[in-house]
Amino acid sequence: MSVKHSISELIGEAVAFHALQGRFDTEPHIAMDGGVFDASEARTLPEIVAMHPLLSDLPGDVADAISGFTTTVDFGGGRLLIAEGEPADALYLIRRGHVALESAQFGSGRICIETLAPGAALGWSWLFPPYRWHLDARAIGPVRAIAVDAKSLRILAERDRDFGYALMSRVSALLLERLQATRWRLAEMSHEHTGI
Fold it and tell me: Distance between the two ends of the chain, CA-based, in angstroms?
């Protein structure tokens, strides 16, 4: 497989991933812009996991397995969900609230690279050794997320190769999207700084 071909596949995956996220804008009882990922607290954890854009329609019946090593977590405004350099031990599925991805800017404090909304997935560093976060992620107001245990997810992906490949393809598309957002943010900052 050529590099050009694999990049075009990743772009295709990113488009498909965005289409899945867009599905939540039109389904009844789910309002992405209102900060609600799942409208019903009565919804079961396997259902919530199965309908998340990153994990929906994956090969096999993995929602029940994944929900066995997940937990719902809440973060108050200003709290870090992840901290750069700390162990990357979870994948976060954002259900409510917004999360700012931040990075240290040399000599200028922290900059916000991107803001994640409900339906977004947070984190890919859990997939790659040495399993350390590369950015900070800070709650903008109250945030509710599902934390998926990274080690268990890696084991499941290794055991079920079809699931593992599909998950890696989607996370790769997410990674490509985040790298593009970082590139645009850095270009925007350079423009603001130079006035060009």
Answer: 40
**pLDDT tens-digit readout, 21-68:** 433 332 322 333 333 444 344 378 888 888 888 888 877 678 888 989
| Residue 16 belongs to domain with CATH number | 2.60.120.10
- 9 within some domain: yes
Q: Quickly tell me which residue has 């108050």 as its tokens.
A: 76
- The pair of three-digit structure tokens given for residue 178, joined into one six-digit string: 């985040």
The residue type found at 38 is D
pTM for the structure as a whole:
0.73
In a domain, 195, yes or no: no
* Measured CA angle at 23 (ends 22, 28), to 5 deg: 125
Range of the domain at 72: 3-190
